């Protein structure tokens, strides 16, 4: 079990994990956030949200400058104090947003697929889809390397669309509300492994990792960490990790209460 004085990265999902699924509150986690910060333990947000959305949340959470993983792993930023902290999204995963949108619209024109991406609609429409404010929806639209979309066609044609995307080195992942197109081989787990490698190269310490998440899109991230906290969630699809995973804890509580439960379980405070 890690202690507060070990080199430890805490990697966390937002919605349904650090943030309450319904109210977006993180107040129950505030004391633990303060404790981690006081011990210089990086808190790495790892979310489907965009860089613009995460930077706004980092300000509210007091995590300005901490590394983060955005757009389900398609975009990433290192510790702001490091040289070259800004990682270009295209540089990390292959295709940037403009290139990936161009492929999607070309396939749609050729095959008549019925889907609506964030790039097809206004911030007002994204606000209606998500329940975000229009201002927040604008941040959700500032995408770097993945596209969120609603599918309005058959399952068979979704499979055909996925196959055509795969030929372009792109892949579809299913999130809570939307499907996402991103570069093949990217994802939360790949981003976490890459980030950890940067930490090891940066200072040569033996960094340990503790991850917290509540959904199927967190599986690859939780499989990539030493200590996995599966927060009780509302997803119908269960979160299943590798049978070889060294250390898994499933919480009783939901959201930020579950987040606290997981840290209490794994981190020794003495
Ligand atoms: Mg979640």
TrEMBL record:
Gene Ontology cellular component list: cytosol
GO terms (BP aspect): mannosylglycerate biosynthetic process
Keywords, in A-Z order: Hydrolase, Magnesium, Metal-binding
Domain Sucrose phosphatase-like: 173-266
GO molecular function: magnesium ion binding; mannosyl-3-phosphoglycerate phosphatase activity
SUPFAM superfamilies listed in its UniProt record: HAD-like
Pfam families assigned: Hydrolase_3, S6PP
Name of this chain's protein: Mannosyl-3-phosphoglycerate phosphatase
